[in-house]
Specification:
This protein has 304 residues and is mostly helical. It is built from 10 helices and 2 strands; from the N terminus they run H-H-H-H-E-H-H-E-H-H-H-H. It has one domain.
Length: 304
């Protein structure tokens, strides 16, 4: 029993250390950044690292040797500590990698998509009547209202997204290796898919954040509300159907669905934790592009 409690403490130790750092930072000007970084790491650690290990152990798929013993002994605590230490470094490194490489791509691509969406809605002639208002003050990081809306949408899209990607790989005859779940084609394709999915969602949200008006009409809010509501309604239906089809068609690899579902959710929460921190850069790029194409001569030159 004591060994079991010690092992549980070791598993939770990274989160305890992160919580301690966040607690220390709460009296500084970086308290909100520290809180969001702590939430990002904790979500990735508990959902992806610990969660997937527990699921695989319960399903009997790729059990870790440390967890395989029915009676966890003291001799197993040392390798468990080493394993958790290496997994903690892996989680930290991967989170930093997302911040340096993956998420900047999303916030760079989103303004371009946002401009295309706006051009589609207001047409070429209407772009001159478009105005926008951007608050130059530093954006407050308090509150999670926008993140909650995006999270609901991304979670609703999860089943249909994974079903679509797995079916696509099957059609392309790229077999999923059931013994190497962490490095299959599905992992690479899922990350690329999420890059463009997140870019599109951020682009739609940019039109709202930038207070885009067409004449006296707040088109940014209209586009965001209609897009999110329609996607949410459609994705709930499609995801329900996808879950039923997946269970019937892909028997025997359900754990792959669970594994990448946990990965999808973990990346989503990490992304949303840094959403308000990185979005101002995307808003700035969007404003520059929109100001450029609104200039009559430059806009005419683009389409001629």
């Amino acid at each position: 029993m004591n060994e079991l409690l010690i092992s549980a403490a070791l598993i939770l130790l990274p989160n305890i250390l992160v919580a301690l750092i966040v607690f220390i930072m709460r009296y500084t000007r970086f308290r909100e950044i520290a809180l969001r970084a702590g939430i990002a790491f904790t979500a990735f650690w508990l959902i992806y690292c610990v969660g997937s290990s527990i699921v695989f152990y319960l399903l009997g798929v790729q059990p870790n040797p440390v967890y395989s013993s029915p009676n966890l002994s003291k001799s197993a605590l040392k390798p468990l500590a080493v394993y958790i230490g290496s997994l903690t470094m892996y989680s930290f490194t991967l989170t930093i990698t997302y911040l340096i490489f993956m998420f900047p791509f999303v916030f760079f691509l989103a303004p371009l998509i946002g401009v295309l969406i706006l051009l589609y809605v207001v047409k070429r002639k209407g772009i001159k009547e478009v105005t926008f208002w951007i608050d130059l003050k530093p954006k407050k990081l308090v509150g999670w209202e926008e993140e909650k809306e995006v999270l609901k949408l991304l979670i609703a899209l999860l089943p249909v997204s994974l079903y679509f990607l797995i079916t696509l790989l099957k059609l392309l005859q790229l077999e999923l290796d059931p013994h190497v779940v962490g490095s299959t084609w599905l992992g690479w394709v899922l990350e690329i898919y999420m890059l463009f999915l997140l870019s599109f969602i951020v682009a739609v949200n940019l039109l709202y954040t930038s207070r885009v008006y067409h004449g006296n009409r707040f088109v940014g809010e209209t586009i965001r509300r209609n897009t999110f509501n329609n996607l949410l309604s459609i994705s709930i239906v499609l995801s329900s159907v996808s879950l039923i089809l997946f269970v019937q068609i892909y028997r025997g690899i359900e754990y792959l669905f669970i594994y990448f579902a946990l990965y999808y959710v973990a990346i989503t929460i990490v992304f949303l934790s840094f959403f308000k921190i990185m979005e101002p850069a995307s808003v700035y790029i969007f404003a520059k592009i929109l100001a450029f194409i609104r200039a009559e001569n430059k806009f005419q030159r683009i389409f001629d």
